[in-house]
Amino acid sequence: VSLSSGSQRAPEGAVPPLGLAGDTNGVLYLSLIAEAMKINQNTVLQGQKVTLVPYTSAHVPRYHEWMQSEELQRLTASEPLSLEQEYEMQRSWRDDADKCTFIVLDAERWSGQACADEGCMVGDVNLFLTDAEDPTLGEIEIMIAESSYRGRGFGKEATLMMMSYGKRKLGITKFEAKIGQENEASICMFKKLHFKEVALNSVFQEVTLRLDVSDQERRWLLEQTNHVEEKSYVELKLPAGVPET
């Protein structure tokens, strides 16, 4: 099961207001990072197994269905939300400067618009900033909610694509993943992606894994994702022959 705890349920306001950063240069840098975290609003990342698209209101009903599952609630350390609360959460992920999220689609089913996003959804992948002092540190989460897609490499590719995007577009050079101790499949997947276990929280029964992107790791990450194509979500969603407004 490719699931890391807390998916889509990151604490509100994970990063304090930018003014707390101190010197002017620091505030400016954090402001640039804040804007960068929103740049995926019209971004599609197309891989071999998965396509990543921005999390929009159209995805919320299906996402809400997923999160009624007690298994997913347990694995993501989440409480069930009402549908309206889920819409509010989606708006938070769209607008907040410290969060970046994509919905994971089955690339084969979605290609050529064979089915709408909602019918191709398999999970989500997120990055969020947790340290106002260090905007190069990003916490990453992956959830493959559709059980039939687990153990087939969908979570691995989605995670690699998000890491590459975070490195190239957001300036993330250090990744952390916090996963429930019992979630052995997810821990194993992150270790295969070169993450190392750095902490164990016995109170929350949670393992923290970390990857610092050295030059060697950066080259490896680029090699793993050199097949990924970045496109415009608006253009892909427009019917043929309809001009963009």
Characterization of this structure:
The chain is α+β, with helices and mostly antiparallel strands. Helices cover 36% and strands 24% of the residues. Strands 7-8-6-5-4-3-2-1-9 form a nine-stranded mixed sheet, with helices on both faces. Strand 5, helix 7 and strand 6 form a beta-alpha-beta unit. Helix 2 packs across helix 4 and helix 7 packs across helix 9. The longest helix is centred in the middle third of the chain and has 17 residues. It is globular and about 45 Å long. The chain starts with 23 loop residues before the first helix and ends in an 8-residue tail after the last helix. 34% of the residues are buried.
How are the secondary structure elements laid out?
Layout: H1 24-36, E1 43-46, E2 50-54, H2 60-66, H3 70-75, H4 83-95, E3 99-106, H5 107-110, H6 117-120, E4 121-129, E5 137-144, H7 154-170, E6 174-180, H8 184-192, E7 196-201, E8 206-212, H9 215-224, E9 229-232, H10 233-237
